[in-house]
Amino acid sequence: MSVLVLVLAGPLQSWGTVARHTLRDTRPHPTKSGVTGMIAAALGTARTDTTRLRELAACSFAVRTDQPGTRIKDFHTTHTRDGKSLPLSDRYYLSDAVFTAALAGPGPLIETMYTALQFPHYALSLGRRACPPSRPPQFAVEHDSHDPAAVLETVPWQAAAWFQEAHPAHRMTIHHDTAATDPAARIHHDHPLDFTPGARRHGPRAVASRTLPPATPGPPDFFDALDTLNDPDGLL
């Protein structure tokens, strides 16, 4: 068994579980369905390929909130190609958020996923097509590991340098798969069963959470370092 570690960062993210009528909501952290969908896109998996989806969804999942971001609402208008107005909708996003996610599965599958994320078949997105990542999501593969939550306890804090400086006492929370009998379990309906357009299905997933001690600042992100290089006096 191995664990794939991903860093999910971008100007906007949206990890919805409610998408009915004119409401497109987002959870405060990435869903298993959304992250699995991103990996399936990298692999070039057809939306109707439920066999491959089952293999990906069998991986155990955990996600850590490194930088929670800000929840914002977009009043969305759109039209058909012939100019006809479509129903108005409220769409919610997380602005300027950073998460670290981990998936545990068979070593060969994890290596295949890691390689695919370096050379994705389809464009990657953070929950919605309009939300591209600001950095390549693949971070590391931990070999001979089977507990994604335990791995996330050891990964350095991935928040932007400005956030680490402004929030030195930030405590990261890990949300991870657990047994349905766990007294701390909550049920999330984000286990992907079928991505077929018009027939999407999700099942329940037992999730528990734990909060870590205050984080230790990690190494500066490449883009933060570039900003410092271009503006050493912090005038911009």
UniProtKB/TrEMBL annotation:
Ranges for region Disordered: 194-221
GO BP, sorted A to Z: defense response to virus; maintenance of CRISPR repeat elements
A Pfam family: Cas_Cas5d
CDD domains: Cas5_I-E
Gene3D superfamilies noted in UniProt: 3.30.70.2660
Key words of the record: Antiviral defense, Plasmid
GO molecular function, one term: RNA binding
InterPro entries in the record: CRISPR-assoc_prot_Cas5 (IPR021124), CRISPR-assoc_prot_Cas5_N (IPR013422), CRISPR-assoc_prot_CasD (IPR010147)
Name assigned to this protein: CRISPR-associated protein Cas5
Native source organism of the sequence: Streptomyces alboflavus
